[in-house]
Amino acid sequence: MKRIALGFALVALAALVIGRAHRAPRAQGNPLGTLALPLASPLRLRALVRERIATGSYVYLRLADERGADTWFVTVRGRDDERDARCVEATAYARAERFESARLARTFEPLLFGAVRRCR
């Protein structure tokens, strides 16, 4: 039950972040319709953190998967003991093919939205 609630909270977070960063006129309907991954099958990966960009209550992470491929991921800033983790387990609930962060004056192509925890 907690996992489902967390999933819904992260999708809502993604909608808020996207709404603030993307200034184009909004289409009718759910803005996450083109971004959301099916909650029944979220994308999971174990990765090394190559770069962190903290901004407000969010943190952008450049993650390297087992093959060494980089992926940008955004999540809510976690507990102090997880902020310096080198290895993380990430679960993505939404994806934007192109995300423009006004605060960072930077574009991420693509950007995954979800939860991150220290590797076990």
How would you describe this protein?
- By secondary structure, this protein is α+β, with helices and mostly antiparallel strands.
- It has one domain (2-118): OB fold (Dihydrolipoamide Acetyltransferase, E2P), CATH 2.40.50.
- It is 17% helix and 42% strand.
- It has one helix at 2-21, and strands spanning 43-55, 58-64, 70-76, 87-96, 99-101, 106-108, 111-118.
- The protein has a five-stranded mixed β-barrel. The chain has a two-stranded antiparallel sheet with strand order 5-6.
- The chain is globular and about 30 Å long.
- The two termini are 22 Å apart.
- 24% of the residues are buried.
Major sheet: order of its strands? 1-2-3-7-4
Average residue-wise pLDDT: 77
Text of the CATH class: Mainly Beta
CATH topology: OB fold (Dihydrolipoamide Acetyltransferase, E2P)
Distance between the termini: 22 Å
Low-confidence sequence ranges: 21-28
Describe the biggest sheet? 5 strands, mixed, barrel
Strand content: 35-45%
Q: How much helical structure, as a percent, in the residues?
A: 10-25%
Number of helices: 1
- The domain count comes to 1
Count of DSSP E strands? 7
CATH architecture: Beta Barrel
N-to-C SSE series?
HEEEEEEE
- SSE class: alpha+beta
Search tags:
OB fold (Dihydrolipoamide Acetyltransferase, E2P); single chain; globular; 120 residues; 1 helix; 17% helix; alpha+beta
